[in-house]
């Protein structure tokens, strides 16, 4: 097989995921459809988790990147924990079999009912993002007669050198608290009866392809831990977040998980902490593709458009971030042409690629949008009353539908006519 990414590539000019011909999946299930590789998920999880095997750790998968129950069950069987940002994600992870003691709850706007649910589930800890949230959590825990274990999310003010929309550790970010303020908030938490500070958390951004910012951030946070311990606050968990980037182009070089570990592990060892990491995209991104069908080829004096049946509602990243996804014909030939690949949604921004050189296709051909396993289906919507795609998991030469395509009934589920 001529690999594009692990377990995804061409065999005799036809695209395969593991031992399954992608064309056969499209013919059987229809399009658009998300296709994931079981072997790829296992490969990328082990690549990341294994890099930190020198320390006691929880590799908490960022559920927001890919939240299908079958995927979460697979990761649970590999020993993963979960990084969650809503009560719904906690529900998903527990349903999938991830132990509650391996679940952390992050997010800048946790509601009281979500706090109650998380406490009732016995999660490992809350990553608290503001002093107000700390006060509310203490009150909720008091009402339930429980103690909430917490880490404070601190912003080390380190530039992660990524897209501004996914840069989260600067002073201008809505996330977390300035590292200079963290000390006082930890002292306050120590004196609250229903809160127990047990960790420290930082997350500087996503799709980071230079590991040096992690070194700088971890060093600043480790210094904070030492100061806190001098004041009797025993920090047990060092939560370094996620954010390690992937290659969206097959020939693109990105840092290994081992290179990230080399930046973080020395601080964790020095502190004697347990490490928590929160990889999402790194595990799921190149474990999945979005398969779409070419509906029409539209040509004018200046442009050629490939109009496909997947839209921005199915895969938001190109429209939201102007993000690059490598796109290939499922059956490739020798000739190429330069095209805009666009979807059917009634928005000018419904574009997957501008002026992209691609193998020449005709109406009815399949195209694969690669590196779509992360923030693909999880960001999908029913905009334009479009049915969200099915999801399929490939294992060796077989595949299984792990989420049915939406039906028309799903579109109006829960809606009611107004009774005058």
UniProtKB/TrEMBL annotation:
A Gene Ontology molecular function term of the record: diaminopimelate decarboxylase activity
Keyword Amino-acid biosynthesis: yes
Residue numbers carrying N6-(pyridoxal phosphate)lysine: 64
Keyword tags: Amino-acid biosynthesis, Decarboxylase, Lyase, Lysine biosynthesis, Pyridoxal phosphate
Superkingdom field: Bacteria
Active-site positions on this chain: 346 (proton donor)
Span of domain Orn/DAP/Arg decarboxylase 2 C-terminal: 37-373
Family matches, as CDD domains: PLPDE_III_DapDC (cd06828)
Pathway where it operates: Amino-acid biosynthesis; L-lysine biosynthesis via DAP pathway; L-lysine from DL-2,6-diaminopimelate: step 1/1
All residue ranges annotated as the Orn/DAP/Arg decarboxylase 2 N-terminal domain in the record: 45-284
Named cofactor requirement(s): pyridoxal 5'-phosphate
Subunit structure of this chain's protein: Homodimer.
Protein family membership: Belongs to the Orn/Lys/Arg decarboxylase class-II family. LysA subfamily.
Function in brief: Specifically catalyzes the decarboxylation of meso-diaminopimelate (meso-DAP) to L-lysine.
Protein name: Diaminopimelate decarboxylase
Organism this protein belongs to: Desulfurobacterium atlanticum
Gene: lysA
């Amino acid at each position: 097989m001529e690999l594009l990414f692990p377990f995804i590539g061409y065999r005799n000019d036809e695209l395969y995921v593991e031992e399954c011909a992608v064309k056969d999946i499209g013919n059987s299930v229809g399009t658009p459809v998300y296709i994931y590789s079981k072997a790829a998920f296992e490969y990328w999880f082990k690549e990341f988790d294994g890099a930190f095997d020198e320390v006691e750790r929880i590799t908490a998968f960022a559920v927001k990147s890919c939240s299908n129950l079958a995927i979460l069950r697979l990761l649970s069987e590999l020993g993963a924990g979960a990084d969650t940002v809503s009560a719904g994600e906690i529900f998903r992870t527990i349903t999938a079999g991830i132990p509650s003691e391996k679940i952390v709850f992050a997010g800048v706007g946790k509601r009281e009912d979500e706090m109650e649910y998380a406490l009732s589930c016995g999660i490992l800890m809350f990553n608290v993002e503001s002093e107000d949230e700390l006060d509310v959590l203490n009150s909720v825990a008091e009402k339930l007669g429980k103690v909430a274990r917490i880490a404070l999310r601190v912003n080390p003010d380190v530039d992660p050198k990524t897209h501004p929309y996914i840069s989260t550790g600067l002073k201008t970010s809505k996330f977390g608290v300035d590292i200079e303020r963290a000390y006082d908030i930890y002292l306050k938490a120590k004196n609250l009866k229903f809160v127990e500070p047990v960790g420290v958390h930082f997350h500087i951004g996503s799709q980071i392809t230079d590991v040096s910012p992690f070194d700088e951030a971890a060093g600043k946070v480790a210094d904070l831990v030492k100061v806190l311990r001098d004041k009797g606050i025993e920090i047990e968990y060092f939560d370094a977040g996620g954010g390690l980037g992937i290659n969206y182009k097959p020939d693109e070089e990105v840092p290994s998980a081992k290179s990230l570990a080399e930046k973080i592990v020395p601080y964790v060892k020095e502190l004697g902490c347990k490490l928590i990491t929160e990889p999402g995209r790194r595990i799921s991104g190149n474990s999945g593709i979005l398969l779409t069908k070419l509906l029409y080829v539209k040509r004018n004096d200046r442009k050629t458009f490939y109009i496909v049946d997947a839209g921005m509602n199915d895969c938001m990243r190109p429209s939201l971030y102007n993000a690059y996804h490598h796109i290939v014909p499922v059956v490739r030939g020798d000739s190429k042409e330069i095209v805009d690949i666009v979807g059917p949604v009634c928005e000018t921004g419904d574009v997957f690629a501008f002026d992209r050189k691609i193998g020449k296709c005709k109406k009815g051909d399949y195209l694969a949008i690669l590196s779509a396993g992360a923030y693909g289906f999880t960001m999908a919507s029913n905009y334009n009353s479009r049915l969200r795609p099915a999801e399929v998991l490939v294992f060796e030469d077989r595949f299984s539908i792990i989420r049915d395509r939406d039906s028309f009934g799903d579109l109006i589920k829960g809606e009611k006519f107004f009774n005058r």
